[in-house]
């Protein structure tokens, strides 16, 4: 289709007018003979064609980190220039990375290990107050719930497309926008509702007499 420009060996698609630079679709022959591999862009193009032929999708969603925004934009533009009618039906959902998600020993680990570590940390925190700890039913389960909440709230507090640093200290805070504080606030509300069942469910705001407050 006349899209490829030979540039001293590598084959490129010039996307400068779309502010997407030059997309390499084939390496220089020298490098091809050395490694014999295709590259991401050509594999993605072939994969998209194959998926459409197999599934006839209404929409194809690519969940790829924001580090690859340029690559995905080049990939989408090349398919568009190749005039595939379904090229408009692809969507890129990008996301940031979690930095520093490791154990306290510094080893990079999987999420289930992070949950296990968070549970241990919360359990240790709970045991610092022996009286309150002894009053908790199922402290292991409670510490796991607190640990998972700490991880969730820290993750959901960040914008999806932004990188953020996983912070063990912040996860332990019982103040501010943290998991433990959210659990604590819920606990207080649950306690109020248990002690005042006659007040619940609350009437609509328009029916509440605020003069007596």
From TrEMBL:
Gene3D superfamilies: HUPs (3.40.50.620). GO terms for molecular function: arginine-tRNA ligase activity; ATP binding. InterPro entries: Arg-tRNA-ligase, ArgRS_core, Rossmann-like_a/b/a_fold. One of its GO terms (cellular component) is mitochondrion. It comes from the Eukaryota. GO terms for biological process: arginyl-tRNA aminoacylation; mitochondrial translation. Pfam families: tRNA-synt_1d (PF00750). Residues 2-168 form the Arginyl-tRNA synthetase catalytic core domain. Keywords: Aminoacyl-tRNA synthetase, ATP-binding, Ligase, Nucleotide-binding, Protein biosynthesis. Belongs to the class-I aminoacyl-tRNA synthetase family. This is Arginyl-tRNA synthetase catalytic core domain-containing protein. It comes from Lentinula detonsa.
């Amino acid at each position: 289709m006349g899209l490829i420009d030979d540039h001293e060996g590598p084959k490129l698609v010039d996307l400068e007018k779309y502010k997407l630079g030059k997309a390499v679709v084939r390496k220089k022959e020298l490098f091809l003979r050395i490694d014999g591999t295709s590259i991401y862009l050509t594999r993605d193009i072939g994969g998209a064609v194959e998926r459409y032929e197999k599934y006839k999708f209404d929409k194809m969603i690519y969940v790829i980190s924001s580090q690859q925004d340029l690559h995905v934009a080049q990939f989408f533009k090349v398919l568009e220039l190749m005039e595939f009618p379904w090229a408009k039906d692809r969507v890129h959902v990008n996301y940031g990375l979690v930095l520093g998600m490791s154990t306290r020993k510094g080893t990079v680990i999987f999420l289930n290990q992070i949950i296990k570590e968070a549970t241990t940390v919360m359990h240790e925190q709970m045991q610092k107050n022996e009286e309150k700890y002894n009053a908790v039913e199922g402290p292991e389960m409670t510490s796991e719930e607190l640990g998972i909440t700490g991880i969730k709230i820290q993750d959901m507090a960040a914008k999806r497309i932004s990188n953020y640093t996983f912070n063990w200290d912040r996860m332990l805070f019982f103040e501010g926008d943290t998991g433990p504080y959210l659990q604590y606030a819920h606990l207080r509300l649950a306690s109020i509702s248990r002690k005042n069942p006659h007040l619940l469910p609350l009437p609509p705001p328009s029916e509440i007499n605020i003069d007596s407050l």
